[in-house]
Amino acid sequence: EIMKVLGLDLRDDSLMDTPRRIAKMYVNEIFGGLDYRTFPKLTVVDNKMQCDEMIQVRKISMSSTCEHHFITIDGTATVAYIPKDKVIGLSKINRIVAFFAQRPQIQERLTEQVLLALQTLLVTDDVAVSITATHFCVKARGVRDANSETTTTALGGVFKTHPETRKEFLMGLEG
Question: What residue spans define the domains of the chain?
Fold first, then answer.
């Protein structure tokens, strides 16, 4: 329907399959995170080393889609946790961020979903998530501000209640 409104000829051999390709792309790739059966296979292991210091994974690339305009949100996430009884492979954190990003989304919810998933998997409230992203609905349309970035942060446990732990996490965002 949109292609017709734009005056594109769907009988053209380079366009005739475009609606099907777009639908397939959204269902199988861009919005794959809507299907919880595709949640990453994760293994959390016992914290045998008794690690009790902050583990922080920075500059996790993420792309999502603005649920209001169906246009790209592109940015990076930083995730930290303080282990209790369980630890998780570092790449698994990247996979969790990617899973929740693969759906129509707002950045605030995405940040909170990553926090809650890790709190549940690691059985600890001591998780922090920060996402900084460029919203193409701001960059490429409307106000057309190419330099604007949005940062959202979700803090749990000691990251919320202990100023020094929060400061350590937030200082790590700058490095």
Answer: 31-174
* Residue 69 appears among annotated catalytic residues: yes
| Predicted local confidence at residue 72, as pLDDT | 96
**30: Cβ–Cβ under 8 A, 6 or more apart, which residues?**
65, 102
Q: How buried is residue 112: exposed, middle or buried, by Cβ count under 10 Å (0-12/13-18/19+)? A: middle
Residue 92 — pLDDT band, cuts 50, 70, 90? very high
Contact in structure between 141 and 156 (CB atoms under 8 Å): no
Active site residue 66: yes
- Judge: domain 31-174, CATH 3.30.1130.10: yes
pLDDT digits (tens, 9 = 90+) for 96-144: 999 999 999 999 999 999 999 999 999 999 999 999 999 999 999 999 9
Q: Residue 157 and residue 8: Cα distance in Å, rounded?
A: 54
Spatial contact of 43 and 25, defined as CB atoms under 8 Å apart: no
pTM of structure? 0.93
Is 107 considered catalytic here? yes
67 labelled catalytic: yes
Catalytic one of 66, 105, 113, 119: 66
